[in-house]
Amino acid sequence: MDPSLIRNFCIIAHIDHGKSTLADRMLLRSGAITDREFHEQMLDDMELERERGITIKASAVTIDYEHDGKTYMLNLIDTPGHVDFHYEVSRALTACDGALLVVDAAQGVEAQTVANAHLADRHDLTIVPVINKIDLPTARPEDAAMEIEHLIAHPAENCVFTSAKTGEGIEDMLEAIVRDVPPPTGDAGAKLQALIFDSTFDDYRGVIVYVRVFEGAIRVGDKVRMMGAGDVYQISDLGKFCPQPRSVNSLAAGEVGYAAANIRTVSAIHVGDTLTLAGDPAAEALPGYQPPQHMVFCDFYPGPTTQFPTMRDALEKLLLNDAALTFQAISSEAMGFGFRCGFLGMLHMEIVQERLEREHKIEVVQTAPTVPYQVLRTDGSLVEVDSAGELPEPDTIEEIQEPIVRVDLIVPADAIGGIMALAEERRAIYRETEYLSADRVILTYEFPLAEIIYDFHDKLKSATRGYGTMDYEVIGYRANDLVKLDILVNGQPVDALSVICHRSKAERRGRRLIIRLRQEIARHQFEIALQAAIGARVIARETIKPVRKHVTAKCYGGDITRKRKLLDKQKAGKRRMKMVGNVEIPQKAFMAVLEAGEE
Asked: Which GO molecular function annotations are given, in alphabetical order (predicted)?
């Protein structure tokens, strides 16, 4: 197809501003789907996406659009809005030439709107601002347009006003895409360079890769080489999503589609790799992607009904569809064999666990999440640890550095006081204030990541009556007075329950934690001592009393020595049982570590 008639663009916005509904409406308008086929979230084909009403995976779809007697090929990528799926958005932007920046007419510019606008700017994309939901009674489209002008210096009068719900303004938006988004550059006669921007696994056809062809053309039957991995495969099928898969004979420069090549090994595919012809390869690969920064780590162990190899296979298949996930095998005395997994955030962790349970029927036992730390040792070396159990011996540690994030909070002006108090409590450093309008403010802080991943978003919503939004990006590591808080059960440290925290909060957190543990661990036949300790110093203790039989119940009167003899015999039995007995710690007790951090 003539490249001047192709437009590659994505939809970016804050969560719940109507991206997926807008994509649905464009499919309906172009005739890709009929009224009978139409339903909400057409591109969100994961059960979890429909249930939660959010987009988790970026979806690619090709739309044919008639305009001025010409047929344009619009390649749309619908992206997630949640901050945890920032990496999905950055991957989608690399495959595009333009972006629709969608803003809710009632809520205006939000934190993720700002972040996504800057991200699109860094990728040199042409931005088309769209004010959505103009049908709402509380809509204020002109104010939202002025906020966009203030944010990205794009004239307010150039904004497109639409309602994805009613279909109003969809035609204007499609015309703006054709008019403003530049056609792709690239020569169909050059040597093949196709970027893999996503992949998925099909039980019958193996690995299917999603590609954007930058140079040259790819045809069914071609032998292609992965420039990063070096493997050679023969293309068995090419196609586009319209939105149902439709096979084609070739994909030329500027086009987006999928390719199948009987790839059976999941580890052979790397998102960001470049496809080229094996017989006539390109001189160099495309830039690809920066590896994702994992901000939350958690241990996954197979539950009673799951085997370790089954869990590994499920994680490998999930990794193919979720390039931001990492995992490595570990073993723990308390829990056995499992995997240390890295995630982009707490929602990402929840989604992965739920997908394992639903899609692969895996029962997961998880430990409390932690953030990565850097430890400067006394010999000058720097090591990264992602759990308290990996910390070196205390006498070899010079300092512990924690990850610091720059947080943009968009809040109502009358909530500034409550937010500042919340930020101070979480060890934040104030940076700047910027007014979006008379009654909305952007507050910028630097927070330790560990202080915001658990429950900060909930506290923010409470302090702003639901109107506050946040976005964060990691800016580096900073040394602080951090200590390892050990939890001892019957004198034995349990690595899976240990945490790294600030010294000023260690005693309060340790005490809360063992109180929670006392409530979760069932009483045994012997007394159980729960202790929180920093190094050799115990800072808190709780005791779980044993289950006791009333051994003196049948002693009616007589000398006290008869009762004493029975009680001493019981005491000796308890002591012996304590020496050989194991304390059973339930899964809920491990989650108590997380909940103790939330209170």
From this structure: GTP binding; GTPase activity; ribosome binding
